[in-house]
Amino acid sequence: MIYEAEFESMPAAELRNLQSERLAGLAARAYERVDFYRARFDETGLKLDDVSTIDDITTLPITRKQDLRDHYPFGLFAEGIREISRIHVSSGTTGKATVVGYTTEDVDLFARVNARCLAMAGAEPGMMLHNAYGYGLFTGGLGLHYGAERLGMTVVPVSGGMTERQLTLITDFRPDMISCTPSYGLTLVQEFAERGMAPGEISLSLGILGAEPWTEMMRGEVDAGLGLKATNIYGLSEIIGPGVSCECVEERNGS
User: Fold this and answer.
1) Is residue 89 a part of any domain in this protein?
2) Which of 130, 113, 110, 119 is closest to 152 using CA atoms?
3) Do residues 36 and 67 lie in contact, with contact meaning Cβ atoms separated by under 8 Å?
4) Measured between alpha carbons, how far is 120 from 175 in angstroms, rounded to an integer?
5) Where in the chain does DSSP place strands (E)?
6) Which domain holds residue 57?
7) How many domains does the chain have?
8) Element (H or E) spanning 251, and its range?
9) For every one of its 255 residues, what pLDDT tens digit does the chain have, with 9 covering 90 and above?
């Protein structure tokens, strides 16, 4: 299933034109609204007129993780705080937390790109999604939740942990699809096996896994242990969260 064929199946030339238009608009917005980016442009001598095609992305100043930390919490926002409808925060395990603000338009886009990824992973309207990504400040849970609702799925917002309860809900509700980290997928494989449930007895047929690195060997173990086809979804808070990139269930050859 293709959720937004207008964009996902756009001819290459049209896509390139759209990307060029969006990049030029993004550069102008950053320059006009964020002091940090205006200073970076001026320091490098880059003019807005120099950003006209997608190829010019290589000329733009790089934003580093330390830049985000140095301007904590809201110093890189292009909108005033009153225009922000939601704030997510990274764990900050490797330093000061990264703060990400979403306008209402951003939240709508968040739902759309995750609906696209779920559809690529094999989901269809009417299916049930067991969403075992964490909810809260982490972007994963809400991103997949809103994407699934936008696609027309039924969502079980179980969040992370509580493995015994997760096993019970999967057994009783019989969802079609699960979203979780690869390592948690392996945990469920082990726990179902200890319960004596064969993969064919588990209702799941699809999985959309991400938020951490994983290997083809891990994918094979999750596929075999839960009786499903697992696809990879990629994202990072600095851009939007999950939904930046994903695999399709037919190919499963990397994002």
Assistant:
1) no
2) 119
3) yes
4) 18
5) 86-89, 99-102, 128-131, 154-156, 177-180, 206-210, 229-236, 241-246
6) 1-62
7) 2
8) none
9) 899 999 999 999 999 999 999 999 999 999 999 999 999 999 999 999 999 999 999 999 999 989 999 999 999 999 999 999 999 998 766 678 899 999 999 999 999 999 999 999 999 999 999 999 999 999 999 999 999 999 999 999 999 999 999 999 999 999 999 999 999 999 999 999 999 999 999 999 999 999 999 999 999 999 999 999 999 999 998 999 999 999 999 999 864
Last residue of a domain, one of 30, 46, 62: 62
Please classify residue 16 by burial: count the beta carbons closer than 10 Å to its beta carbon, then call 0-12 exposed, 13-18 middle and 19+ buried: middle
Which residue bears the tokens 């499903």? Answer: 228
CB 175 within 8 A of CB 207: no
Rg (CA), the chain: 20
Q: Can you give the CATH number for the domain in which 164 is found?
A: 3.40.50.12780
Structure tokens at 88: 């997510």
72 lies in some domain: no
Please report whether residue 2 resides in a domain. Answer: yes
Complete DSSP assignment for 126-153: T-EEEE-SPPSSSHHHHHHHHHHHHHT-
Q: Is residue 76 part of a domain?
A: no
